[in-house]
Amino acid sequence: MLKLEIVTPEKRVIDETVESVTVPTATGEAGILTSHAPLISALKPGILSYSNKGVTAKLAVSGGFVEVSGDQVSVMTDTAENADEIDVEAARAMRSDAEKTLAATASASIEETEAIREQLDAANARLELAAGR
Question: Measuring CA to CA, how many Å separate 92 from each of 63, 103, 115?
Answer without folding.
Answer: 19, 16, 17
